[in-house]
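Re: the multi-chain job from yesterday

Posting the exact lines I submitted so nobody has to dig through the queue logs.
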Amino acid sequence: MRVNLGATELWYVVNLSPDTHPIQVHLVDFAVQRRFGFERDGGTGVFDPSAVTLARITATDAWPIGPEMQGPKDTVRANPGEMVGIAMTFAPFPSHYVYHCHILEHEDHGMMRPFVVVPPWVPHHEHEPKAGLSDRARRSFRPGQPVVHPAGGEPA
Ligand SMILES: [Cu+2]
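And the result, C-alpha cells for all chains:
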C-alpha cells in the first residue's frame, strides 16, 4: 500500500472477527473520527473468508466516540462488529512503515501489514524513483528523512 507524503487520509478499520484488536499505525498520530456498526454481505457472525467472498460493507449505527478515544492516538481499539474511522496526515518522513494489531500472537500470525509513504511525485509502484527523474529529484528521496521541496513545487 502506498500513501503520498503529506496526504491526509481517512482509513476505516473493519473488525470482522469475534475478538477486539488494538490497531496501531506507525509513523503518525491519528484522530478517531467515526465509529459504526456495519452489515456485510454473507450475513452476521464470524467472518469465514473460505466460505464468503466479501464484496460489500454498509455502515449502520453510528456509535459515540468516548473520552478515552479523543485526542491524538497511535492505537485504536477495534471491537467485534465495529468499523472505526481514523484520520491522519502522513508527514514529515517518507519511508516504509506498518500497521498492526498490538496483540503479539495476532501480529505474529498476519495482522501486520506494510505501507510505504513516498513523495507524490515518485512514480507509482516504485519504492525508488525511476530513471527519467532529474538527478535532483532522485537525490532528495531518502527513506526516513523529510523531503524538502523548493519554493514553487516539485524538485527540479
Ligand atoms: Cu488482534
